[in-house]
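Recall that a protein's primary structure is simply its ordered list of amino acids. Everything else, from secondary elements to tertiary packing, is in principle encoded there. The following example makes that idea concrete.
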Amino acid sequence: QVQVAESGGGLVQAGGSLRLSCTASGSSFSVDHTDWYRQPPGKQREWVAGMPGSGVTSVTGRFTVSRDKTKNAVNLEIDSLKPEDTGVYYCNVRGVQNIRGTLIPFDIWGQGTQVTVSS
């Protein structure tokens, strides 16, 4: 089974930048799309940025999604951090896994990583 994990969260000051990493692990799978979401305190989860499996870099405002082939990871870099960027950041990976010759689609969420931006 494919597993997804985020890392890189923490406490940062406003105006700084932060890089989060999303790593998918397992056997015989390919990724169709990777998306980053966040859930601010007391609010619903919202989409932040994303990239297709074949992509290298995608920029959405202050958010840059990039692929790190050496680590088989998709990173999210957030620039000019604001207190309202505080929340739990989740990675969602969609793709297909080959299980004994059968292609099984998957849609998996990581456990999330906390980002707190202080003013």
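The longest strand covers residues 87-99. The CA atoms of residues 65 and 76 lie 5 Å apart.
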